[in-house]
Amino acid sequence: MAPPFDPADLPTGVMMALSPLVHRVLAPNPSPFTYTGTQTYIVGAQAVAVIDPGPDDADHLAALTAAIAGRPVVTILCTHTHRDHSPAARPLSDLTGAPVIGCAPLTLDDDGPRADAAFDADYRPTQVLADGDEVSGPGWTLAAVATPGHTSNHLCFALLEEKALFSGDHVMGWSTSVISPPDGDMTDYMRSMQLLLGRDDVVYYPAHGEPIENPQRLVRGMMGHRKQREGQILRFLERNGDSAIPDMVAEMYKGVDPRLHGAAGRSVLAHLIDLGGRGLAEPTGDGRWQMR
Questions:
Q1: Quick check: 208 and 26 in contact, CB under 8 A?
Q2: Choosing a second label site near 128 at 20 to 30 A (CA), which of 52, 66, 229, 283?
Q3: Which domain holds residue 238?
Q4: Residue 84 annotated to the active site
């Protein structure tokens, strides 16, 4: 599901230039689910935008303040409201006076296994962006691209001047995105992936992992991976009949770090809900499923 990682591979708190308009600062929150940590992006040269300010961590906020270096901050944008992405928005806004805009607020109890994936209940945007809405500064324009699936409120942001896309957790540079019901939705996720295939972005800047060149090839591969997983689930149900999700995970995720099995089970559940909506599977009670 994901390669091994060494948090020392990338330094935290250091601004790194990725393009004339894009710099990143890595937050000190590595984990099996965040890889080397959350990457906050600073867009622009004179007045800037900050994308996914990350966790409310004093060292990370100090690093962002140093990276901004006194320049005006036009806006603080959040792709979604998981705790590793948006909590620093409020203190950074207090420090810079910049408005917090982007995704809609969303607070609900997530019964999945990812402690880091809980929603940020304190996120309060000044403005919510709809698909296609733009925000701009000197030499840069960011357009919102609605990409529900990982969460229902997930947005990507397109940097029009460089044909770049800040892909948040929708497309990451190290692993597939976890789709965890009740808010994560596999049907929406696949629809959003199809939308990205129709775009002409030349690079993705994900919230976790390295920049993605030739992104449409990766998107096609990720969609193919999901279709293969769907096929595995259907074959399992056809062979075994009424089945529990942990039994599916044990067979389909052999060799995967057991710490990730809970998250894998959430993705299997998301597939099953999608299959149920298409009339191919149905729940039988007590978390078990069968072919319809």
A1: no
A2: 66
A3: 223-291
A4: yes
